[in-house]
Design a protein that fits this description.
Elements lengths: L6 H18 L6 H8 L3 H7 L3 H9 L14 H17 L1 H16 L1 H28 L9 H18 L6 H23 L1
Helix pairs in contact: 1-2, 1-4, 1-6, 2-3, 4-6, 4-7, 5-7, 5-8, 5-9, 6-7, 7-8, 8-9
Length: about 190
């Protein structure tokens, strides 16, 4: 019978990963190093995260359990809540330390990329699909909106601003981004009606 997962071990592993990322960067993180720093066996880490990339994604970007999608009753407000989370997540120093190496590994290994998409990005996609479905029910968005495109429209500009231009992506940026995307979806509704 398998032993139950200990939340304290999960926290120790994630904390150790973050500390190593900040101290050594992505290249300086190894499962062995994380296990030693967290005071657990390597097998304990591998049982939870089958690869360094998955461990780093969870430690630096977000975990798989995002909770329920924001539901303010308004498309732009829901998108603003998601954008704020994206901005906060990608603006942390640990994300800056992780992303270059993480992106390199994901671009070179399609099976790994597929696992990360299924495990982590899938949670974001489900959020956006729920938000878009609710918005369509309220008449704020069309029935044919591609939730993956909406997610891309939220993540891409934050990533560009934070990592490519080096400018700050603060709260107001997330709000402006949500307004822009929400207006675009509203225009699609108007086109469908005409």
């Amino acid at each position: 019978m398998p032993r139950p997962r200990l939340p304290s071990a999960d926290h120790a592993i994630v904390d150790a990963t973050r500390a190593l990322l900040l101290a050594r960067g992505y290249a300086g993180v190894s499962i062995e190093g994380v296990a030693a720093r967290a005071g657990v066996a390597k097998t304990t880490v591998y049982r939870r995260w089958p690869s360094k990339a998955e461990l780093v994604f969870e430690a630096a970007i977000h975990h798989t359990r995002l909770g329920p999608a924001p539901d303010t009753g308004d498309l732009v407000e829901d998108l603003a809540a998601v954008a704020a989370i994206i901005v906060r997540s990608l603006s942390r120093p640990v994300a800056a330390a992780a992303l270059p190496g993480l992106i390199a590994d994901l671009s070179q290994d399609s099976a790994l990329r597929d696992r990360v998409i299924a495990r982590f990005i899938g949670a974001e996609q489900a959020w956006i699909a729920t938000i878009v479905r609710r918005a369509a029910g309220r008449g704020e968005a069309g029935d044919n909106v591609d939730p993956d495109l909406v997610l891309d429209l939220l993540v891409g500009p934050v990533f560009s601003r934070t990592f490519l231009t080096g400018r700050s992506a603060g709260r107001d940026f997330g709000e402006r981004l949500a307004i822009t995307v929400g207006r675009g979806l509203a225009r699609d509704v108007n086109r469908e009606e005409n």
